[in-house]
Amino acid sequence: MTNTYRRAVFVGPRQIRIDEVPIPEPGPRQALIRVRACGLCTWEQRMYIGEEPYYPLAGGHEVAGELVKLGDKVFTDAKIGDRVVASLLTRCGYCESCRKGLDNICDNARAPFFDTDVPGPAGLAEYVLMDDYQLYKGANDIPFEELCLTEPLACVVRSVRKARLERGENVLIIGAGIMGMLHLVLAKQAGTRVMVSEPNAPRAEFARQMGADIVINPFEQDLAESVKQATNGRGADVIFCATAAGPLVELAVNLAAKGGRVMVYSSIHPRGTKISVDPNIFHNKEVTLTGTVSQDRQDVWEAVRLITQRKIDLKPFVSRVFPFEKLEEGLQEALKLDTYRVVVTM
Q: 346 to each of 6, 162, 224, 319, 332, how far by Cα in Å?
């Protein structure tokens, strides 16, 4: 093992610096992994194009790799050399949110990022150091390119759980990107009937291939009328807003059935976007409008189990794989509409 490793840092719009930094030694409750694959989330994509200009930032949080070293007080069933998942969302475990079971929105979630020379999860690198609670054992026969999708899958696990899906319900997913399609897979496993709204033809076709019962092109069909016809006029029992457009949240509230749940999954852009809805909908139809962000430890555990027990096939979601040396090319590819997840390998 050499004494240094490479780490990517976003320093400006479409500007990435590669640092050569010392390989850290794990503390008593830490683990060091050699990164083998890192997914390029929309967060990194927005950082790259300057839509969310937090610079400098060591990006990369969808990480899988090999366990290299363990602190002497770490308790884990993972052994040196095993394939592992790094859940790089930090949780202090002590704040009121954590103690209420909301560690996905820990009050101090970003504080540890600023204890380093460059803030950020730092998964776009050859090595990453993490606290023991962030370490999850994978399966040594699962490709790293699939294991690194544990983090986005865990976010969807949380969204689907909070939606309280029941067998036979009508579900509408707005947006057939990777997150919308992960919702589709889990919703189908829950025994629901799934409608997908997507104007992009290749994505619409992919939704059909992944098991959507009904696919609607909202540019060619009236979405409200299509949902009404498909549900005998009731509306959708659960609606997942998996695209970042505020007006679609307004529309979703109006498309919900009595007792329906509208889940705002995607963060809405631009930040600060406002929506307007008739409050009587909540009174008269008992519709719930809520959302989720990130994932808690149970969500990550479930996602790891789904992947390692082969209860979900993630191969169709890996669009392209690029070596670390071609990170910028990978980010440019990830920005295209015909990709789901681009993965960088080390």
A: 10, 35, 46, 17, 18
Q: What is the pTM of this model?
A: 0.95
Contacts of 164 (CB under 8 A, 6+ apart): 261
Q: Which two tokens stand for residue 186?
A: 């889990």
276 backbone φψ class: left, alpha, beta (φ>0; ψ -120 to 50): beta
Which of 87, 15, 5, 22 has its CA nearest to residue 56? 15
Which helix (H) or strand (E) segment is 6 a member of? Answer: strand 4-12
Q: Which of 14, 140, 64, 104 is nearest to 298 (CA)?
A: 104
What torsion, rounded to 10 degrees, do the Cα atoms 255, 261, 267, 273 define? Answer: 50
Domains and CATH numbers, the chain: 4-149+314-345 (3.90.180.10), 155-291 (3.40.50.720)
pLDDT in tens, 278-322: 999 999 999 999 999 999 999 999 999 999 999 999 999 999 999
